[in-house]
Design a protein that fits this description.
By secondary structure, this protein is α+β, with helices and mostly antiparallel strands. The chain folds into 2 domains: 3-183, Beta-Lactamase, CATH 3.30.450; 213-458, 4-Layer Sandwich (Phosphatase 2c, domain 1), CATH 3.60.40. The chain is 39% helix and 25% strand. The chain has helices at 3-14, 26-36, 45-58, 93-96, 118-121, 157-211, 264-283, 287-302, 383-386, 396-405, 412-426, 446-458, and strands spanning 62-68, 72-79, 85-87, 103-105, 128-135, 141-149, 223-230, 240-248, 251-259, 311-320, 326-333, 338-341, 347-350, 367-372, 377-381, 389-390, 393-394, 434-441. Helix 3 runs antiparallel to helix 6 (157-211) and helix 7 (264-283) runs antiparallel to helix 8. The longest helix is centred in the middle third of the chain and has 55 residues, at 157-211. The chain is rod-shaped. Residues 225-441 form the PPM-type phosphatase domain. Keywords: Hydrolase.
Length: 459
């Protein structure tokens, strides 16, 4: 036996023996590699520092952290060499993952397996190679932490133990990284689920909101109706509502209201209030009695609730007269006052009111009366208008009254559009929902107005 053969034989006995190049659990091992999602990722300072530390401890020019893929060896970190990946050739990393624990090749030219590796036989001239497998908690060798030199050298047990410790640190880093990846993925799934749930809630909200408002405004002969509704954020169904319905003959009912709070519970009370008003109006057209009945309904509904809700509302009965005017009777339960916009440009606020609905049983609601002449309009709104804020300033009743006094037109559509534009200029609609409804009496024909003027002059 030659000296070289004797040295090779001694080297074989010094490190664990392996057979073949593919671990018996290769399929499971590759799944573990994929599980950590580490292949082809950008450089990472934590792994770079481990490679640099290994080179410093072993006093070698080259150290690497590798992952053994199906047909390649990919370098997660390198020190002293600029390489990204190489083929899965025998003798070095591909062989090191076949054994448990660190291993060393003190002279690769004397190792019968390593000698055929291109890094040994080729220009690189590798002579010394020591590696510790990167072993997961469930026993799969993903790759190696390596130290490399171009001259032969010996390795002690303490050095191999240190290399194993560095490989364990790599595993810890991989676990931390995997935990972070899982957390990110979980958060992404949570957000996607929130978006899906939000979409479902918004769809329910849209459907529910549609039940709280009339599908279309009715046509009232001799009068004009117009309304505007700005919804709260869709995932928070608002509590504002309005309604218009006939009472028979030449009488029409208009209601507007605002339930405290938002969400499905508020919407349920909103629906109850809207339909309770309709039900009460079938029994009587007296606004004060209709409001008293609604109050008792809400008091009974909210009894025993952990967080009772309340409602403000106006119920109005408008009856057309033979003279072309309209008689108005209304009752107010804690709601912002209705505003009469006269054809001559003046405004009147109908401020008398009873208490909020659902607050106290047996509450009384006075009936107010006024007459709308030709060209007059009547405006109702919820507090989303007056509570709008900009730079801490509230839109307020005073600003609304001043704006209405400066209105260019008096018909219902113009009044609603005027209020809507003013509010948007002050502050775009925010969190609260907003409802506005207006009704106006058609102006007298031009000829009639001229005759009226002549009679007035004659008087």
């Amino acid at each position: 036996m030659t000296d070289a053969e004797s040295a090779a034989s001694a080297g074989d006995q010094a490190r664990p023996q392996v057979s073949g190049l593919i671990p018996p659990n290769e399929a499971e091992r590759l799944r573990a590699v994929r599980r950590y999602d580490i292949l082809d990722t950008p450089p990472d300072g934590a792994f770079d520092r481990i490679a640099a530390l290994a080179a410093r401890i072993f006093e070698v020019p080259v150290a690497t952290v590798t992952i053994v893929d199906e047909d390649r060896i990919w370098f997660k970190a390198t020190h002293g060499v600029d390489v990204t990946q190489i083929g899965r050739d025998p003798g070095l990393c591909a062989s090191a993952i076949l054994v448990d624990g660190p291993t060393a090749i003190e002279d690769a030219t004397l190792d019968p397996v390593a000698y055929n590796n291109p890094l040994v036989r080729g220009e690189f001239g590798l002579r010394y190679y020591a590696a510790a497998p990167i072993t997961t908690s469930d026993g799969y060798n993903l790759g190696t932490v390596n130290v490399i030199d171009r001259v032969p050298r010996q390795t002690g047990d303490t050095e191999l133990e240190t290399l194993g410790d560095l490989a364990s640190i790599v595993v810890d880093e991989l676990e931390l990284r995997l935990s972070a990846i899982r957390e990110v993925r979980l958060e992404r799934r949570r957000r996607e689920e929130v978006q899906r749930s939000k979409g479902q809630v918004e769809e329910v909200a849209r459907t529910l909101q549609q039940t709280l408002l009339p599908p279309r405004m009715p046509q009232v002969p001799g009068m004009e109706l117009s309304a505007f509704y700005h919804a709260a954020p869709l995932q928070e169904v608002g509590g504002d509502f309005y309604d218009v319905f006939p009472l028979g003959g030449r009488r029409w009912a208009i209601s507007i209201g605002d339930v405290s709070g938002k969400g499905v519970n508020a919407a349920a009370l909103t629906s109850l209030a809207r339909y309770a008003l309709r039900g009460a109006a079938i029994q009587t057209s007296d606004p004060s009695l209709v409001m008293a009945a609604l109050n008792e309904t809400i008091v009974a509904d909210q009894a025993g609730q952990d967080v009772p809700r309340y409602c403000t509302a106006v119920f109005c009965v408008i009856e057309q007269t033979d003279s072309g005017s309209a008689q108005v009777r209304l009752a107010n339960g804690g709601h912002p006052p209705a505003v009469v916009c006269r054809a001559d440009g003046s405004i009147e606020r109908l401020t008398e009111s009873g208490p909020m609905l659902g607050w106290l049983p047996d509450s009384q609601y006075p009936t107010l009366e006024t007459l709308l002449g030709p060209g007059d309009g009547l405006l109702f709104y919820t507090d989303g208008i007056t509570d709008a804020r900009r730079y801490g300033q509230r839109f307020g009743e005073g600003r609304l009254a001043a704006a209405l006094a400066d209105r260019p037109h008096n018909n219902a559509k113009s009044l609603v559009r005027w209020v809507r534009n003013l509010m948007n200029e002050f502050d775009p609609p925010g969190y609260d929902d907003v409802a506005v409804i207006s009704i106006s009496v058609e102006p007298a024909p031009v000829q009639e107005r001229q005759l009226t003027g002549l009679w007035a002059a004659g008087d």
